[in-house]
């Protein structure tokens, strides 16, 4: 989770903008339930009258209310009202604080005045109005109207009435005061219906405005989140690709090509998808949840414990499900690697599979990998399917509890219907916040595993790196003299050495050949020169400079390697030959290289010549053509050191001989190293090394080795005729 969050640092500005937009969206979202409550409580039940502070009052009503007020209340009301020419009193303020203060000042006098207008005898006999004063209290009110009671007696009377109402005092007093205001408006000839409609339209308009603003914020957040996640994905792919390019052969073998492909595509896609969720949903959930809690506390319903219980149950369910599924999510990524590996092997070796009629076997192998992945995915999906029903059950139980306990509060008179509706909406918003997190938590474990796999690549340092202080300046005029000085090498993790105590010198203008049985270390020797691996013991020097003290760029710049397996890239013949740089290699140089590599015959036969397309991996050219193009690519570079790793094996004898002759003229002043299986390819070399079990068992020319090297003689007898053994092979 924390690693996923660390990726968001790459787009701080977008994240900050998203957070601000989410706060605005949450504010709008949380404002709507309160407006719904106001529509029910004020718009419908109170006829659109919010406060017991009338906008207009008759003169006689003003006077009667003033007689029932304390001195402080009189001063407050006098500062907020002024008398019009027709004698009515009009309110001069619309500030919320003033209206709340006026509501408190008018509420009790209105209830008292309303009670005075009723028949005390009827109120006492019916007993239906719990708020109606007794006969003694009415006598006191009449005395107060006549000005014969002090303010202390008035306050005592108010306290007595409030005590009679008990817990319902605030609710009932507000309702009776609002009813008094409504009757006053009717007495003034005002239409209560128009007041109610105006309030409903005003409140509904506010709700519509908040809804539109919320929609704009949601769209903007989605846009920014998608853009930020895409940027994270792009950067990660670039970092992973750059890191993989820096890997030596050891790191490539450690991770495997199939795993690197999965990590560069599927894993990064998982991270990118969850990044959108983090910014869009998980960031919004706590903002909405905290805001909902604050709103719930403000409703004063006494049912906050329901939210605490619901959140605790949700967290318990999520933790249980994630703890069960997490190990399987880790296993799933490994199974995806396995699936990619099997698929890649089958598709790459399809012709071999068909040739040996192994289709059924490979189908079973693929089916096994496929089924293992399917079973793991089914397990995790089945575990996570419990989450949604559990969340819905919790939400429905919470709704029932709110209605149950809320109904009791309404019945007791300390809760209004609108407040209960608002509380229910806020509770659902809080629960939905946690539900958002739980929905994303299904993907978080897998994304966390994917992030770990990506970081494993990014944290892996290549075992082949440039020295802290390079000596590139010593190769300003590179001659290409290559020297092995008591070189030994073993692969990482291997028990024994592949090469032991190898010493020889390859000089410019000469061809040094390496021959030996399969597995004797010929290709390994070649791979040590461009530092695909570093020697375990001894050293390799180029013009007297240890190659480990040269930068990789400088070292490989002066070398040209044709690998054992010719590799071509999708494009054209020209783009493959000019791989070293189209700006550095002219068309004339390209054609000369193709001529030297004996490739012009089949290139010119193609309708588009050098612009002929080359499929991925060179699948639309033959093995011999592929080798000749790979050789032409190196010749066009004009390196100081040519490295041929069994690069003539697919050529016929005639083409092989012609190519070597042309190459000898082309690379007259360069160092040439050839690894070969055929003696005919190397018998004219100035120096031939015979390897056996990683050791040099023979060194010299063809004639010298034929006299004193039994291993070489054995190879020669297996390949050459008697006449060739005696007289050599004619070119």
Summary of the model, kept short:
This protein is an alpha/beta fold and 731 residues long. The chain is built from 30 helices and 15 strands. 64% of the residues lie in helices and 9% in strands.
Structure in words:
Helix content is 64%, strand content 9%. With 731 residues, the chain is α/β, with parallel strands linked by helices. Helix 26 links the parallel strand 12 and strand 13. Helix 14 (304-348) runs parallel beside helix 18. The longest helix is centred in the N-terminal third of the chain and has 55 residues, at 192-246. The chain starts with a helix and ends with a helix.
Q: Which regions are unreliable across 5 or more consecutive residues at pLDDT < 50?
A: 119-125, 127-131
Largest sheet: 6 strands, mixed
DSSP strand tally: 15
> What helical percentage do the residues reach?
55-70%
Radius of gyration: 45 Å
Mean pLDDT reading: 81
- C-alpha termini separation: 68 Å
Helix-and-strand structural type: alpha/beta
* Outline: elongated
Identify the strand order in the major beta sheet: 9-12-13-6-14-15
